[in-house]
Specification:
It is a single chain. The protein is of the alpha+beta class and 388 residues long. The protein folds into two domains: 171 residues, FAD/NAD(P)-binding domain (3-Layer(bba) Sandwich); 167 residues, D-Amino Acid Oxidase, Chain A, domain 2, CATH 3.30.9.10. Helix content is 26%, strand content 29%. The strands form three sheets. Strands 1, 2, 9, 10, 11, 12, 19, 20 and 21 form a nine-stranded mixed sheet that branches. Strand 19 and strand 20 form a beta hairpin. The longest helix has 18 residues. The chain is globular.
C-alpha cells in the first residue's frame, strides 16, 4: 500500500491535516490506535474557547484570524454549526499575565476589546465576585467550538475526498525507505508513504524523548455542575477566564449550554504520561479544588455536581506548539505539544502541516513552533516506535 502521505493520529490536528492533504489531491491514509470518536485524546469535552486577543503571544494572532476563516469554511462545507459567538470575559489584576497579555495582543493587531473597571464589572455581571484592583477585558469576537463535532466534520470531509482511514490500528514503528517511509502497524500490515505526519497527542512525548526533548503530559480536570441560577445559561453569561493569585492556575468556564456549567483550571494537574494516564475521577482530589475556586468567583455556579472528565495536556517546555520537520528526516512533519490551548487552531495547523509535507515550508509564519528553539543532541537513529 503506497500513499503520498500517511497521517498518524486522527484527533483535531490529524483530522484537519488529512482533510487538507486530500483536498490538495494527495493520496492519503490516516491511522489511529483508537476507534473513531474516542474520548482518550485532548479533543473532547463538548466546548473549547476560540479567541483573538491571545495573551500567550501576539504571534498567534495572524494564525487565529486564518483559523476563524477556516472554521467558517468548515461549517459551510460540512453543513454543521461548529462555532458560537459568545464573547469572552477575562478578569485579573492589571499586571496579570492574562490581562496584560490580552491587551498587548489587541493593541499590536488592532483587535476590538472592551476594558472594564471594578465598578463596571460589578454592575454588568452581578453574579460574579470581583475583587478590588481587578479589571476585565471583554472580547466580543470570541466564542465556543464543539471539539467532537469539529473532528468528525474534518474526518467526513477527508473521507468524501477519498482519504483512507483505519481506526483501532496502532502504529508500532516507522523507518526511512528510499521512496519515503514504511510504517509498521500492530496488525502486521505495512504502509508506504512519501511523507509522514506525526500528530500523536499525548503519545507525542515518546517521539520527542527519542530526540532528547522532554515534554510533559498533564492531567487536567474538566467539571460540570448544575448552577443555582438561570443567569449562567448560554446567552445570559459569556465564557470566562479569571487569573487570580490565590488560585493554583487561571480558572476558565463556559455557560450552561444544556449539559451543565463547565469549569476547569488551565494548565494545572499532576504530571504523568499516556500509558499511565488516570481517567478515574476522585471528588475530593479533582472536583473540590474547582468548587472552592468557583465559590470565591461565582458562587451560584456551584450547584449539583454532574460529571467530570480528565483531559491530557501535552506541554512543551515553553508551552508553545511544535510544528516542524523532523530534525533528521525532512519528509516527516512533527505536530504536537499543543499545551492545552491548541484546539482552536486545528484547521490552520492542518494547512501548515500540508504545506510542510508537500511544499517544504509554510505560507504562515511558524518560527514560534520550530523544534530548533530547543537544544537537541545529535541523532543517529533512523527509526522510532510510536503509537497513535
Amino acid at each position: 500500500m503506497r500513499y503520498d502521505v500517511a497521517v498518524v493520529g486522527l484527533g483535531a490536528m490529524g483530522s484537519a491535516t488529512l482533510a487538507e492533504c486530500v483536498r490538495r489531491g494527495a493520496s492519503a491514509i490516516g491511522l489511529d490506535q483508537f476507534e473513531r470518536g474516542h474520548q482518550f485524546g485532548s479533543s473532547s469535552g463538548k466546548t473549547r474557547l476560540i479567541r483573538k486577543a491571545y495573551f500567550e503571544d501576539p504571534a498567534y494572532v495572524p494564525l487565529l484570524l486564518r483559523a476563524y476563516e477556516m472554521w467558517r469554511d468548515l461549517e459551510w462545507r460540512s453543513g454543521q454549526e461548529l462555532r458560537r459567538t459568545t464573547g469572552l470575559l477575562m478578569v485579573g489584576g492589571e499586571t496579570s499575565e492574562v490581562i496584560r497579555g490580552a491587551q498587548f495582543a489587541a493593541q499590536e493587531h488592532q483587535l476590538p476589546i472592551e476594558v472594564l473597571d471594578v465598578r463596571e464589572l460589578r454592575a454588568r455581571y452581578p453574579v460574579i465576585r470581583v475583587l478590588d484592583g481587578e479589571v476585565g477585558v471583554f472580547e466580543s469576537d470570541a466564542g465556543v467550538l464543539n471539539p467532537e463535532c469539529g473532528v468528525e466534520a474534518q474526518l467526513q470531509l477527508a473521507e468524501k475526498a477519498g482519504a483512507e482511514m483505519r481506526f483501532g490500528v496502532a502504529v508500532k514503528s516507522w523507518h526511512a525507505h528510499e521512496n519515503g517511509f514504511v510504517v509498521q502497524c500492530a496488525d502486521q500490515t505495512a504502509i508506504q508513504a512519501r511523507r509522514l505526519v506525526l500528530s500523536l497527542g499525548a503519545w507525542f512525548k515518546e517521539v520527542l524523548e527519542r530526540l532528547g526533548l522532554t515534554i510533559r503530559v498533564q492531567r487536567n480536570i474538566q467539571a460540570w455542575f448544575r448552577p443555582r441560577t438561570n443567569k449562567l445559561a448560554a446567552g445570559q453569561f459569556p465564557p470566562f477566564l479569571i487569573d487570580r493569585p490565590e488560585f493554583p492556575a487561571p480558572l476558565y468556564g463556559f455557560p450552561d449550554f444544556g449539559d451543565g456549567f463547565k469549569s476547569a483550571f488551565h494548565a494545572h494537574g499532576e504530571l504523568t504520561d499516556a500509558a499511565h494516564f488516570d481517567r478515574e475521577i476522585d471528588f475530593r482530589r479533582d472536583i473540590e479544588p474547582i468548587s472552592r475556586a468557583l465559590e470565591q468567583w461565582m458562587p451560584q455556579a456551584v450547584g449539583q455536581y454532574l460529571s467530570a472528565k480528565a483531559c491530557p495536556y501535552t506541554l512543551t517546555p515553553d508551552a508553545h506548539f511544535i510544528v516542524d520537520h523532523h530534525p533528521e528526516h525532512a519528509g516527516i512533519v512533527l505536530c504536537g505539544g499543543f499545551s492545552g490551548h491548541g484546539f482552536k487552531f486545528a484547521p490552520v495547523i492542518g494547512e501548515i502541516c500540508a504545506d510542510l509535507a508537500f511544499e517544504g515550508q509554510s505560507r504562515h509564519d511558524i518560527a514560534l513552533f520550530s523544534i530548533k528553539r530547543f537544544t537537541l543532541p545529535d541523532q543517529s537513529e533512523a527509526a522510532g516506535g510510536i503509537r497513535a
